[in-house]
């Protein structure tokens, strides 16, 4: 769990380094980090939402199942969004409010996968005095296969 | 309805009931650790007493994506035993969820469609709290591959 230990959990730290709504340029790629997904990270995510499916947690049962081995739940991108972005990424700005998400799933992520994120802001706008950004995110595995792709909207701190 | 199904047996209006989930400060903190999302919205009561971004919450709130994870769990628990795949989920949040709330996702079959190479079910999804208030809603797609037909 070296990655988890290294992860900065104080989102106020270096908050001044993160782009504000004014500075975010739609179309510019975000800096991202490769992340090796582990069984432990999958198990912790499963615990947090009450997932008990053996496909995610029981190696022997998963091997006999439809995916031929352990997989992560589709919604593991919730973890990947933060594990694949650096501390100065604007998704960490305190007060960022998630306004909605849509995700399409291609193939499952698996323990041991080295996962890469391609991400950018696609658009930004003002609505009812709130500052919105539209996000575009695609996660790939080490074979360059798409795991999932998603679009989201956040309300940025003023 | 039964939790194991086939594409042919599904009817518009059929419902899927997801798991009840008790929200606590501990469950929110666990979701922080599992998702690495340590936004103070979910951790810092003092910060949440303030008003910001034209929104005031009055205390820490659950991650919106915790709703998303519960809906996804409901869909996979329903789809996998039927040989089906959870292919899409779109959600938006209607109301903040706070410690002490109990939430439960539900799915309602909206339509079925056969395409050139597969078969799809479109579902409305929602999450309700203990007062019957909708806290999240959206839409999902589940694929029933032809090769897996019973």
SSE diagram, text form:
The complex is a heterodimer of chains A (158) and B (150).
Chain A: H1 2-6, E1 35-36, H2 39-49, H3 54-57, H4 59-64, H5 77-83, E2 97-105, E3 114-127, E4 130-140, E5 146-156
Antiparallel strand pairs in A: 1-3, 2-5, 3-4, 4-5
Chain B: E1 15-17, E2 21-22, H1 25-35, H2 45-49, E3 51-52, E4 55-56, H3 64-79, E5 85-93, E6 102-114, E7 119-128, E8 134-143
Antiparallel strand pairs in B: 1-6, 2-6, 3-4, 5-8, 6-7, 7-8
Q: How would you characterize this protein structure?
A:
The complex is a heterodimer of chains A (158) and B (150). With 158 residues, chain A is of the alpha+beta class. Chain A is 21% helix and 30% strand. Chain A has a single domain, classed as Hotdog Thioesterase (Thiol Ester Dehydrase, Chain A, Roll), CATH 3.10.129.10. Chain A is built from 5 helices and 5 strands. A 5-stranded antiparallel beta sheet of chain A has the order 1-3-4-5-2. In chain A, strand 4 (130-140) and strand 5 form a beta hairpin. Mean pLDDT of chain A is 93; it is low at 1-5. Chain B has one domain (15-148): Roll (Thiol Ester Dehydrase, Chain A), CATH 3.10.129.10. Chain B has 3 helices and 8 strands; from the N terminus they run ββααββαββββ. Chain B has helices spanning 25-35, 45-49, 64-79; strands at 15-17, 21-22, 51-52, 55-56, 85-93, 102-114, 119-128, 134-143. In chain B, the strands form 2 sheets. In chain B, strands 1, 2, 5, 6, 7 and 8 form a 6-stranded antiparallel beta sheet that branches. Chain B has a two-stranded antiparallel ribbon with strand order 3-4. In chain B, strand 7 and strand 8 form a beta hairpin. The longest helix of chain B has 16 residues, at 64-79. The interface between A and B is large, with 46 and 43 residues.
């Amino acid at each position: 769990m070296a990655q988890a230990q290294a992860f900065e959990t104080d989102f106020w730290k270096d908050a001044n380094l993160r782009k504000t709504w004014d500075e975010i340029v739609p179309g510019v790629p975000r800096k991202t980090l490769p992340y090796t997904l582990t069984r432990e990270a999958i198990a912790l995510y499963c615990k947090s939402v009450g997932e008990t499916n053996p496909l995610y947690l029981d190696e022997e049962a998963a091997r006999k199942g439809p995916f031929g081995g352990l997989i992560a739940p589709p919604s593991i991108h919730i973890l990947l969004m933060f594990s694949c972005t650096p501390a100065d990424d604007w998704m960490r700005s305190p007060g960022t409010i998630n306004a909605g998400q849509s995700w399409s799933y291609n193939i499952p992520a698996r323990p041991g996968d080295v996962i890469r994120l391609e991400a950018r802001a696609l658009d930004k706008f003002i609505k009812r005095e709130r500052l919105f950004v539209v996000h575009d995110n695609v996660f790939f595995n080490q074979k360059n296969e798409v795991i999932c792709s998603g679009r989201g909207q956040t309300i940025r701190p003023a | 309805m039964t939790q194991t199904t086939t594409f042919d047996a599904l009817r518009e209006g059929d419902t899927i009931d997801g798991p009840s989930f008790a929200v606590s400060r501990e469950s929110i903190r666990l979701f922080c650790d599992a998702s690495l999302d340590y936004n103070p919205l979910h951790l810092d009561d003092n910060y949440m007493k303030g008003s910001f971004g034209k929104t005031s919450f009055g205390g820490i709130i659950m991650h919106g994506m915790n709703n998303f994870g519960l809906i996804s769990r409901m869909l996979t628990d329903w789809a996998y035993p039927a040989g089906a795949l959870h292919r899409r989920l779109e959600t938006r949040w209607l109301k903040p969820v706070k410690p002490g709330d109990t939430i439960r996702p539900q799915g309602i079959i909206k339509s079925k469609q056969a395409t050139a190479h597969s078969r799809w079910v479109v579902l409305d999804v929602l999450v309700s709290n203990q007062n019957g208030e909708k806290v999240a809603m959206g839409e999902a797609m589940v694929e029933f591959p032809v090769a897996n037909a019973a």
